[in-house]
Amino acid sequence: MADNILYVDACVNRSTSRTERLAQALLARLKAQGDANVTTLILEDAPIAPLSGDDVNRRFELAHAGAFDDDLFSMAKQMSQADTMVIAAPYWDLSFPSKLKVYLEHLCAQGVTFRYSEQGVPTSLCRGKRLYYVTTSGGYVGDLDFGYQQVKALFTLFFGFERAECFRAEGLDIITNDEEAIMAEALAGIESAQLD
Question: pTM value?
Fold first, then answer.
């Protein structure tokens, strides 16, 4: 059975994106491992907007009625059917570009991607098991990648993904650094990674 891979591209400067370059190398590796169907969602082109109060209320009412055919649930339904998620997002302001935050809000659809148990614990309704997060930064991030930490927590705690891994290249815009050497090292890391 084919592995359904959902690739979410949150890169803003796509034509020159170093994050996109790393993500494409990762996707090539994943495709080379066997039968895979890759669906690409480019957030810059996606017709999504932050959820308004009216949207949230409407989504709650629709979910309560079990009416999940509305467009408000389309991205959540798409993600819930992915076996593997690849998210590419440059490091911006301690996290990621705002369209990725909006996308994550759309994924948190009770009754589609998760439900609450009687004890109030989120229980996954997704089939996905693997999340790969790809990012690049001009400076050094270290432990301050709150974007990856947020995505990892959401996908493991709410959506039931068993594996979350981050591939990154840091320090790319520091004048004394060799940008291409850093990228080559990150690409080599993707090439040698154990992907299962």
Answer: 0.95
Q: What is the CATH number of domain 3-191?
A: 3.40.50.360
67-92 pLDDT, tens digit per residue, is 999 999 999 999 999 999 999 999 99
Per-residue HEC secondary structure of the chain comes to CCEEEEEEECCCCHHHCHHHHHHHHHHHHHHHCCCEEEEEEECCCCCCCCCCHHHHHHHHHHHHHCCCCCHHHHHHHHHHCCCEEEEECCCECCECCHHHHHHHHHHCCECCCEEECCCCCEEECCCCCEEEEEEECCCCCCCCCHHHHHHHHHHHHHCCCCEEEEEEECCCCCCCCCHHHHHHHHHHHHHHCCCC
